[in-house]
Amino acid sequence: MIDLHLEGLTHRYGSVVALDRLTLDIGGGAVTALLGPSGCGKTTALKLIAGLLSPTSGRVRFGGRDVTDVPADRRGAVMVFQDHRLFPYLSAGDNVAFGLRMRGVPRRERRREAEAVLDRVGLHGLASRRPAELSGGQRQRVALARALILEPEVLLLDEPLANLDAHLRDGMRELILDVQRERELTTVVVTHDQEEAVVLAEDIALLFDGRLHQHGAPRTFFERPATERTARFFGSTNLVPGHRHGEVVDTPLGRLHVPDGAPGGPEVWVTVRPERLTVADPRAGQQVQGRVTSSSFLGTRSRAVVEVAGIRLTVDVADDALVDVGPGTALTLGLPAEALWTVPRERREGTPTSPDHEPATPGWGDDARTAADPDVEVRS
Ligand code: ATP
Asked: What is the torsional sign of CA 222, 224, 226, 229?
């Protein structure tokens, strides 16, 4: 198991700064996701780790070894590209065996090994098919097999679950995690999809504009976002504008007790995940009353949108209890203090109160009311 250390990595393509002083420690034998929107520099970072690009400045270390100037084929890292990059005129078996051929491994041996790796990725009996004769999901597995046959210490995956339907995604995810554990591979996954990052990785590095924005366990991104931008990127959290004084935040919902929050000024968003709000539960402590505007069934849970003092709060429960709650129904929501968190409010026009919904009160944002609304009852 080998740790990776990226130290002040910058990469420029001409005048474009694709990656800006990225410093990141990546744990050995674990899966780390480089997450961020398109163009934030994720693939550039992966190629710098692979040795397919040289940094403009900064160092890459594998364990204690500085590999910045070591060629890609001597690093012990293999990258699997999103578009697979298989040779179209070679069979799946020959594609997988290709790296061993380059290493001078005799034909019989590389065939045997290629078949074993193809078996491992669930492609038994398909060695003689050409890429055009395989499905997209099967081609993805061939690309993974082609990397695994080289027995890398570091596996680099570019959007490994993209373009796969839900069923294939699950299978591919299990396969990646199984081989990663079996071989104790240090794995870095690039993705723009927060769900993909969460299901694959133990550790997430969130990049915006070529810079590291937040780094930590997946859960912290949902429950303890460092900034409004992180909270919005992770989506579907409730955001309520407010003004913080110590552990108290004055909001349109009333005065809330919010013990914890990210550092910053007094103008904040109170964030709370839909599944952490409670419905008609007196143990929740502070409560607000509102009216349902819509409800829906989400397969494994149900959801209601509840308007309170012009703010729409989304609440999810783990059963179908909210499915038949019609518009206009009065609902009491609990806001347990430990489920609340604040992030500093960024200054920008027309910010919606929740990423999922149009603002119930247009213009909430910079000039949001900061005092408790006297018309709203908050009980605790
Ligand atoms: P995506 O998710 O869309 O693949 P990304 O986060 O992986 O995006 P990169 O591919 O690393 O982002 O690109 C980062 C920035 O560098 C982008 O602004 C991109 O346009 C630019 N860029 C990438 N490759 C080149 C190149 N070969 N020449 C010039 N600019 C490039």
From this structure: positive
